[in-house]
Sequence to fold (89 residues):
Amino acid sequence: MTSSLYVVIPVHNRRELTRRCLECLSRQTATGFEIVVVDDGSTDGTAETIRREFPRVTLLQGDGDLCGAEPPTSASRTRSSAARRTSCV
Fold:
């Protein structure tokens, strides 16, 4: 399916919240969108749940070290601003 709209959901160890979100999206009557979940190294079974229960969702997996995955501190905001000027974002 070629979509004009992508719903991108970044997650890390939020299995139940992600499941509820994907269940809501699956009940939408709108069409023409694709769901992409970016799981940054979850250890709570998030990726496995998505694969098993939502096979039409595109799952991209990281290792816990994706760009911008730090808590928002002053230093990380500065690095995040710099990252936006690179190909990382």
The chain has a mean pLDDT of 82. Helices lie at 15-26, 46-53, 74-84. The CA atoms of residues 22 and 54 lie 8 Å apart.
